[in-house]
Amino acid sequence: MTACRSPVLSVVVPCYREQPNVAPMVAALDAALAGIDWEVIFVDDDSPDGTADAARALARTDTRVRCLRRVGRRGLSSAVIEGALSSSAPFVAVIDGDLQHDETILPAMLDAVRAGADIAVGSRHVGGGDAAGLASPLRQRLSAAGIGLARKLAGVAISDPMSGFFLLRQSLFEDLAHRLNGQGFKILLDLLLSAPAPLKVAELPYRFRPRAAGESKLDILVMVQFAGQFVDRALGGMVPLRFIAFALVGLFGIFVNLAAMQASRAAGLGFGPAQTLGTIVAMVANFELNNRLTYRTMKLRGVRYWQGLVLFMLVCGLGAIANIGIAGALYHRGDANGLAASAAGSAIGVVWNYAVSATLVWR
Ligand code: GDD
Ligand code: MN
C-alpha cells in the first residue's frame, strides 16, 4: 500500500487563455513555497489556447500540479469556488494565473492565518504595495470608486477588497460556500459579504506586476455585472441578479421599440407595420443583450443562437399578448386606471418572459 497524503496548501489558479503563463507559474510557486507541502489547482474554463493541456503536461511528471477543466461555463468567481471546494488541504490560496500577484508573500500569508487571522489578503494599496500594474487612469479611478463602496458594505476595514489574491482555511471556505453569489469577478468581496460576522483580515502588501503574457479579461461587461452584484446584496438576495439584468434589458427594449417605430414611420410605413417592425427589432436587440449580458456565462452560439432567438421571440410574443390582455381586462373591470393597468400588465409580462426564457432558451 502506498501512503496517501494531502498537501498543507492548495493554490487555486483560475485561468482563461493563460497557456504561456502556466509553466512559469508552477516554477514561481516552486521557488516561493520551498519547505511547504503544496499543490496547485489550475481551474480552466475550456480555453481555446490549450491552457488545460499545458497544465496536464506538467501534471504528468509533477504530482503537485492538478488541472480542473470546466466545459460550457465561464466565470472567475465560480472557477475559484470549484477549485477551492476540490481541495482536501487545510489551507487554500487563490492567485491569478498571469503572474500579476506576488507569490513570494504566500508563506507570510499562511503564517498570518496560522497566527489567527480568518483570511490573509494580498493588497496593492497598503504601505509598501502599489498599483503599478493597473493599466489605465480610468481603471485606477473605477478601482478606487469600487473600493469605497465595497468597504462600506462589507463593514471591514480593508484597503483592497477587490483583490483576487488571498488565503484562508479550507473549512472556512467550505462554511461560506452556500452563501456565495458566485457570479462575476469579486470572489473575495463575495466571501467578506457572505460571512455572518465580519472576518478578521490580515493584509499583506505586495507590488502588483504588469501582466506576464496574454490580456486582461476584465471588460466593461464585468464592471456592469459587478454593479449588479451590489444591487443584489442591497435587495438582500431576494430578487435574482439575472432577473434584474433581464428587467433592465427589457426596459431598454422599450426605447429600442419606440425608436425603431419612429424611424420606420418617418420612412413612410403605416402605424401597424411600423409597430410590428419596432417590436421585432426590440426583441432581437433584447435577445442579443440578454445573450451577452444576462446570460454571458452561458452564451448561445452557432445554431443554438438562432434556435434561441426564434424561441425567445415566441416566448416574448406570448408575453406581450398576456401583457396587453391583462392590462385591458383590469382597465375594463374598472379595477385600475390606465397607467396602473399597463404597469401590472408589464410586470406580469416581464416575469413571464424571464421565467420561460430562463427555462427554455438559456438553460
Ligand atoms: N477559469 C476562469 N474563467 N478564469 C478566469 C476567467 C474565467 O472566466 N476570467 C478571468 N480568469 C482568470 C485569468 O486568466 C487570470 O488568471 C485571473 O482570472 C484574473 O483575470 P485578469 O483578466 O488577469 O484580471 P485583471 O488583471 O484585469 O484583474 C485583476 O484585478 C482585479 C481587481 O481589480 C486581478 O487581480 C483580479 O483577481 C482582481 O480581482
Ligand atoms: Mn491580470
Description:
Keywords: Glycosyltransferase, Membrane, Transferase, Transmembrane, Transmembrane helix. One of its GO terms (molecular function) is dolichyl-phosphate beta-D-mannosyltransferase activity. The chain has a 7-stranded mixed β-sheet with strand order 3-2-1-4-6-5-7. The two termini are 45 Å apart. It has 12 helices and 7 strands. With 363 residues, it is of the alpha/beta class. The protein has 2 domains: 9-215, Spore Coat Polysaccharide Biosynthesis Protein SpsA, Chain A; 241-361. It has helices at residues 19-32, 51-59, 76-85, 106-114, 137-154, 170-176, 187-194, 220-234, 241-266, 271-294, 302-333, 338-360, and strands at residues 9-15, 38-44, 65-69, 91-94, 119-123, 166-169, 201-205. Guanosine-5'-diphosphate-alpha-D-mannose is lined by residues 14-16, 18, 43-45, 74-76, 79, 96-98, 100, 143, 162, 164, 185, 216-218.
Largest sheet: 7 strands, mixed
Looking at the structure, the CATH topology of the largest domain is Spore Coat Polysaccharide Biosynthesis Protein SpsA, Chain A
Strand residue content: 5-15%
Average pLDDT metric: 85
Q: What's the CATH class label of the largest domain?
A: Alpha Beta
Q: Indicate the percent of residues in helices.
A: 40-55%
The number of distinct helices, counting runs of at least 4 residues, comes to 12
Q: What small-molecule ligands were found?
A: guanosine-5'-diphosphate-alpha-D-mannose, manganese (II) ion
Organism: Acidiphilium cryptum (strain JF-5)
Pfam family, one: Glycos_transf_2
Protein name: Dolichyl-phosphate beta-D-mannosyltransferase
InterPro entries: DPM1-like (IPR039528), Glyco_trans_2-like (IPR001173), GtrA_DPMS_TM (IPR007267), Nucleotide-diphossugar_trans (IPR029044)
